[in-house]
Design a protein that fits this description.
It is a single chain. With 258 residues, this protein is an alpha/beta fold. The chain folds into two domains: 193 residues, Alpha-Beta Complex (2-enoyl-CoA Hydratase, Chain A, domain 1); 49 residues, Lyase 2-enoyl-coa Hydratase, Chain  A, domain 2 (Orthogonal Bundle). Helix content is 46%, strand content 16%. It has twelve helices and ten strands. The strands form two sheets. A six-stranded mixed sheet has the order 1-2-3-5-7-10, with helices on both faces. Strands 4-6-8-9 form a four-stranded mixed sheet. The longest helix has 16 residues. The structure holds hexanoyl-coenzyme A (HXC). Could possibly oxidize fatty acids using specific components. Keywords: Fatty acid metabolism, Lipid metabolism, Lyase. Belongs to the enoyl-CoA hydratase/isomerase family.
């Protein structure tokens, strides 16, 4: 499928999706967000894809929503169109794992998009921020909620109220990213992580993703019950028998996603 604002490649059962608006540091305009939601939906449905990596360029993952496109919009425009709302719900609903591989700027909607992914691997040159306050607005696709859950109230308030950027070391220290890698190794490391996920049983991968995400939606007791029921349910799969037999026989498992 030909896209104008993203590039999609499938390699070793991993879909690598690159945001590609270099002239605007990958700012999220309506075309990009629409194409991204479409490409992720296709990847989710494609049996040849078992994990997804979302990245930008070395200079920018994404520098936020496109300010040029937004600048003249009124309240009625953004409210009536629910700016990016439909597409973001689609992205939040993708069931396969999505790794955000962040190099350079991940600002505003770019930082929020990275946080919607399942985890973030950052290059050493990554810079995260929610600078919407400098434009007279606030985050609009989950930044006040997700950043607060990742890094806690004090740091989230600092980021949203001052608009300052966080470097990769601070992002790792505060739990926003899972690991930091040398900038030149970002894509190989993210692809290796995705391939590692692709080797697992897709049934348990989906169950793990759902169960971790429940932690953001429910109480501890309900979340643990959700986890336990899914843990129990996985004993109905062939892959559970295969995984445990392979361990006992000291060999690699051959999962069949059943
Ligand atoms: C449109 C953008 C852009 C953006 C950069 N560009 N960010 N265009 N929307 N968000 C464009 C610039 O206008 C410029 O185009 C080109 O990309 C290169 O950017 P420079 O500013 O010249 O680069 P540099 O000096 O290196 O500074 C990089 C930067 C800065 C620090 C990232 O560009 C910046 O502050 N950008 C805005 C970041 C921001 O405020 N994001 C939040 C947006 S609001 P020209 O044509 O001049 O070369 C948001 C709300 C989300 O995200 C809610 C959604 C519902």
């Amino acid at each position: 499928m030909a896209y104008e604002t993203i590039i999609v490649e499938i390699e070793d059962e991993v879909a690598l999706i690159r945001l590609n608006r270099p002239e605007a540091l990958n700012a999220l305009n309506s075309a990009l967000v629409r194409e991204l939601a479409g490409a992720l939906t296709d990847a989710d449905r494609n049996d040849k894809v078992r994990a997804i990596v979302l990245t930008g360029s070395e200079k920018a993952f994404a520098a936020g929503a496109d300010i040029k496109e937004m600048s003249q919009k009124s309240f009625v425009d953004v409210y009536s169109q629910d700016m990016f709302g439909t597409e973001i719900k689609v992205i939040e609903g993708i069931r396969k794992p999505i790794i955000a591989a962040v190099s350079g700027y991940a600002l505003g909607g770019g930082c929020e998009l990275a946080m919607i992914c399942d985890f973030i691997i950052a290059a050493e040159n990554a810079k995260f921020g929610q600078p919407e306050i400098n434009l007279g607005v606030i985050a609009g696709i989950g930044g006040t909620q997700r950043l607060t859950r990742f890094v806690g109230k004090s740091k989230a308030m600092d980021m949203h109220l001052t608009g300052r950027f966080m470097d990769a070391a601070e992002a790792e220290r505060s739990g926003l990213v899972s690991r930091v890698v040398p900038t030149a190794k970002l894509i190989p490391e993210a692809m290796a992580a995705a391939r590692k996920i692709a080797e697992k049983s897709q049934v348990s991968v989906k169950a793990a993703k759902e169960a971790v995400n429940r932690a953001y939606e429910t109480t501890m007791a309900e979340g643990i019950l959700f986890e336990r029921r899914n843990f129990h349910a996985l004993f109905s799969t062939e892959d559970q028998k295969e995984g445990m037999a392979a361990f006992l026989e000291k060999r690699e498992p051959q999962f069949r996603d059943r």
